[in-house]
Amino acid sequence: MKKSTLSLFVATLILVASTAFAAKMATVDIPEKPEMYATAPAALTPQQCAQCHTGAFNGLKTAGGKHRFDCQACHTVIHAYNPKKANYDEVMPKCASCHTDIHGPANKDCASCHNNPHTPRKVAMTQRLATTCATCHAEEKAELVKFPSKHTNVSCDRCHTSHGFKPSCFMCHKPHFKDQPIEACAKCHSVHKPKQVTYQGTDWNQTCASCHSKVAAKLFNSKARHSKVACASCHKAKHGYIPQCTECHKAPHPASILTRFPNCLGCHLDVHDLPSMK
């Protein structure tokens, strides 16, 4: 066989083999639709983003706070991450693009507390955060220092296990009486100065009776008008306050009697068990 004939034969074999290979690769005949690429696409909506990024969407929905706006307001560059380029930090939005140093210049590493930008209102109570509470909550810190109690010696994260979490008093304390409503606690005790007992309202006689049981039993069994009066009506707004009779009873007797007996308790021996007046 001549050299030229051999070359032609080889070329023919290559062409046939290539055609056969190409036929195997093109197993599906998909018609071209260039009109689909004639118009630039519209920006994705948050609902469209959520079709893939369900976790981020649900986080924003439940705890997104002020971050609940269009995804692309932050993510100006999308689907551009390339592991070979290691450009994650480059394409991700930066907190400083919108936020100033709202917690002071010493707290610029936002992610140490707000570790998920899609749930910014969920802030873990880390040790670092627990030691800087007073930066924002100065009033509460001042109360703990000015009015020392066992709460003063407890770290903030003992009660506030996450930022913004307000625990139930019953997590640590037993109620004063069975079925006491949790609302009753704060009516007398301010959590950051609990020993400074004050009264808000006058409907907590059962709470008073839990400690002052003997006095309460005497008062509640009395037929005098004092038995119908709330404890806080006389003992005012501060625990331990002892009122004067004249705060309610201005001049119950003639001046001649009041001059001879200026001390009411000289005759009315027990304010919690006065003789009934018919």
Structure notes:
The protein has 278 residues and is mainly alpha-helical. Among the domains are: 111-176, no CATH class; 197-278, no CATH class. The chain is built from 12 helices and no strands. The chain has helices at residues 3-25, 46-50, 54-63, 88-91, 127-130, 138-146, 156-159, 183-188, 205-211, 213-221, 231-234, 255-260. Helix 9 (205-211) crosses helix 10. The protein is rod-shaped and about 150 Å long.
Task: Offer a quick outline of the entry.
Keywords: Signal. This protein is mostly helical.
Tell me the layout of helices and strands.
Elements: H1 3-25, H2 46-50, H3 54-63, H4 88-91, H5 127-130, H6 138-146, H7 156-159, H8 183-188, H9 205-211, H10 213-221, H11 231-234, H12 255-260
Helix pairs in contact: 9-10
Pfam family, one: Paired_CXXCH_1
Protein name: Cytochrome C
Keywords: Signal
Order of helices and strands: HHHHHHHHHHHH
Roughly how much helix do the residues carry, as a percent range? 25-40%
Radius of gyration: 39 Å
Number of helices: 12
Shape: rod-shaped
Q: How many beta-strand segments?
A: 0
Given the helix and strand composition, which structural class is it? mainly alpha
Portion of residues in beta strands equals under 5%
Low-confidence stretches at least 5 residues in length (pLDDT < 50)? Answer: none
- Gap between N and C termini: 144 Å
Give average pLDDT, whole number: 83
- Largest sheet, strands/sense/barrel: none
Keywords: Signal
InterPro entries: Multihaem_cyt_sf, Multiheme_Cytochr_ET, Paired_CXXCH_1
Signal peptide: 1-22
Domain Doubled CXXCH motif: 103-141
